[in-house]
Each structure stands twice: as structure tokens, then as C-alpha cells.
Amino acid sequence: MKLSVKDLQLQSQRVFIRVDFNVPIKDGKVGDDSRIKASLPTIQYAIEHGARVILASHLGRPKGQRVDKYSLRPVVEHLSQLMGKQIAFVEDCVGAPAEKAVAALADGDVLLLQNLRFRPEEEKNDDGFSQQLASLCDVYVNDAFGTAHRAHASTVGITRHVSKAAAGFLMEKELEYLGRVITDPEHPFVAILGGAKVSDKIPVINALIDRGVDKLLIGGAMAYTFLKAEGFTVGKSLVEDSMLQTALEIKKRAEEKGIQFLVPTDHQVVDSYEPVKGEKIVTKTIPIEFTNIGLVGMDVGVETVGHFASALADARTIIWNGPMGVFEEPPFDEGTVGVAKAVAEAADRGATVIVGGGDSVSAVSRAGVADRITHISTGGGATLEFLSGDELPGVAALSDK
Ligand code: AMP
């Protein structure tokens, strides 16, 4: 059991909280703020217990350089509004300016440091840099579940230089829900996987097969790799040709274990990815076996959504990661939204439903069913790695109770 923020003495302590404020920024404003909101319980708790709070996060991929569009300044404005409290901000995450800003904090104050990834040492898990971060605080809390699969200075290195490293409430909640799913899922246990890349999802599919998943529902572009491997014509749909053999092996292994393995039976297709200027893209829904070599599959069809919904009817545990189609571009969001509604209905019937990964999470919001889902995971890669049975470096590095 890892130390919890609740186990720490926080009064007048400088508390470094690694949060995941990696949110979309558009025109200098925060878009979807669910990751920020998800970290509020830990921040509020620290304030209420008289801590001097130092928040640190990454945003985007500035690759060790100061890049304006990845500044956390819009986040501090948004956070101040959300909390109804002025949050301080400093343009660097270490060195004299950061030290000065921390020294100015009174009990209950909050400071946000500038993007950790403006420093190349962050992603290198550099020890000197980790020490500099640690020197800002008395105790460390990690609430950034979404980054816990990365061994970086702010998630791993820093823990070697602080007396105590604890999990925040969001981190604890993620570990509790996801932990329950991988150790003791209620059956029938159904996993829905989508998105583009089969290769990214192989470890999790294998782990799910080993952990006794009862049904695997595969949608999104990754389904075409399975379909092509079985000999279907998939036209110009996205396929990972290097994964065809692996796809066959996975399917065989699943079937040997008596796992129901569902792939789409119909799909929405277009006759070109890039429409010729001025030409309207023609979309139609057709059975998979009617696909000719010129077509591109963009989304699962209504029949497939119906099959998937039927497979969910008796489910007691559902995990879902990855969209069913190119859901960013309506109407190719229909399959994903349909699945979002089906998992929400399963949750209403008492199933434990866990949705992870940015795309599926936004689909759930778009379908207006987010509040019916048991647990919306803030992690994408971290959730998949955790469900694959890997210990996350950012969790392993925390102090034991
Ligand atoms: P991943 O990062 O592997 O979870 O993939 C997410 C991406 O898969 C999203 O950006 C979707 O647009 C994309 N995607 C899903 N289905 C398809 C499809 N049929 N063709 C092309 N891209 C797809």
C-alpha cells in the first residue's frame, strides 16, 4: 500500500503536487478542463490543511524548449476561476524565480510552476534537476495518474530526494478502480477496444485474455487489421500490415479460451480520405464483405453498434479504450457515440464501467453520458499499461505506507 496524502502532516509544509494539467489550449484558453477538475480534491485538501501548495505539470510536447503555445499561463487563469482564489504563477519550474515564488507562499496559498517540459532534464529523469525540484518542497504528492507510466524527473527522480512521496486522491481513485478490474472483475467481463493502432494495444489484449475477459469487442481502424488477416477485403482502410500474423494469433488464442471475439460486420465508408476540392464526400454504410478495393472504412455501422450493445447486455464489468471510428469528424462519430450510449445503459443496469483514453472520454462527454459512467480514467497510455499488468514507475516510486 502506498502512502496517501491523508497520511501526511501538511500544516505550513511546502507540498509539491505533480498534477496532470496537460489540457487542450485553443486561442490562449483552456478547452476541456476535466483533467484540471479531477485534481481539485487533492489541491483543496492541501489548502484546507494549511499547506503551501506548489503545483507542477507538463503541457504538450515542447521537447525541452520554451514554446509559448505550451505555456501553463492559460491554465493558471482557468484554475484561479475554478477555485475562486488567486493562484500564483512563475515562469520557470526551478532556479531562483521558482525559489523566490515558493518563499513568498503563506499557509493555504497555491503556486503553479511553468511547464516542466520546457526543461530537457524533465523527460531525461535527470538527477540534478530532480534535486532542484525537490529542494522547493518538504513533501511530495503525485496526483498525475496520466503521466505515471513515464519515469521522469517530476514523477520518479524527485521521489529520491524528498522525505515522503504520497499518492493524491485522483491517483488513489484510479489505482483503486483499475486495480479492482484487473484483480477481481465481476463477470461477464467485456473489453471494448478501438483506435488506430493494434501494436499499441497488443499487451493489453494479451493481459485481458489472461485475466479472464469474457468478450472482446474490436472497433476503429484496428479492426481492419483483424479483418484483413482473416481474408476480408478492407479497401484503403487503415491497416497495420506488420501486425496481420499477430492479429490472427490473438484471435486464435482468444477463441481457444472460449472468449467471444467480435469485429464489425458493417461500416461507414467513403471513397477517398482527402475529398477533391468542392466535391462532397459520399458516405454510405455497407456490410464488411461488400467492401471493394477503393473504399476507406471510417466508422463502424449501426448493425455493429447493435451487436456490440447486445454483447454488453449481461456485462457486469466493462472497460473501453479507443474510438470506433474517425470520431473527430462527424458523421464518423456515430459508432463511437452509439457505443458510449450502450456502455452508459450497461452502467444503469449496475455494471462497473471504466472508460479510458482521451478519445473515448470525449466521446462519452459528447454523448452526454459522462455522469452515468462508473469511472472515467484520466490516463490513456497509463491506463493501458496498468491494465496490461505493468507496475507504473510513478506509482512504484511512491513511499510505502
Ligand atoms: P489510438 O491513438 O490508437 O487510440 O487511435 C485514435 C485515433 O484512431 C483517432 O484519432 C481516430 O480518428 C482514429 N481512427 C479510429 N478509427 C479509424 C478509422 N476507421 N480510420 C482511420 N482512423 C481511425
Q: Describe it for me?
A:
The protein is α/β, with parallel strands linked by helices. The chain folds into two domains: 5-169, Rossmann fold, CATH 3.40.50; 177-387, Phosphoglycerate kinase, N-terminal domain (Rossmann fold). Helices cover 35% and strands 17% of the residues. The chain contains 14 helices and 17 strands. The strands form four sheets. It has a six-stranded parallel β-sheet with strand order 5-6-4-1-7-8, sandwiched between helices. A six-stranded parallel β-sheet has the order 11-10-9-15-16-17, with helices on both faces. β15 (317-321), α11 and β16 (352-356) form a beta-alpha-beta unit. α8 (222-229) crosses α9 (244-256). The longest helix is centred in the N-terminal third of the chain and has 15 residues, at 34-48. It is elongated. The mean pLDDT is 95. Bound molecules: adenosine monophosphate. The site of adenosine monophosphate has 16 residues, from β14.
Q: Which ligands are bound?
A: adenosine monophosphate
* CATH homologous superfamily heading of the largest domain: Phosphoglycerate kinase, N-terminal domain
Gap between N and C termini: 6 Å
What overall geometry do the principal axes of the alpha carbons give? elongated
Q: What is the total number of structural domains?
A: 2
Annotate the secondary structure layout.
Elements lengths: L13 E5 L6 E2 L2 E2 L3 H15 L3 E5 L16 H11 L4 E3 L4 H9 L6 E4 L6 H4 L3 H8 L4 E4 L22 E3 L1 H15 L5 E5 L4 H13 L4 E4 L3 H8 L14 H13 L3 E3 L3 E5 L12 E5 L8 E5 L1 H11 L4 E5 L12 H15 L3 E5 L1 H9 L8 E2 L4 H7 L5 H4 L5
Parallel strand pairs: 1-4, 1-7, 4-6, 5-6, 7-8, 9-10, 9-15, 10-11, 15-16, 16-17
Antiparallel strand pairs: 2-3, 12-13, 12-14
Helix pairs in contact: 7-9, 8-9, 10-11, 11-12
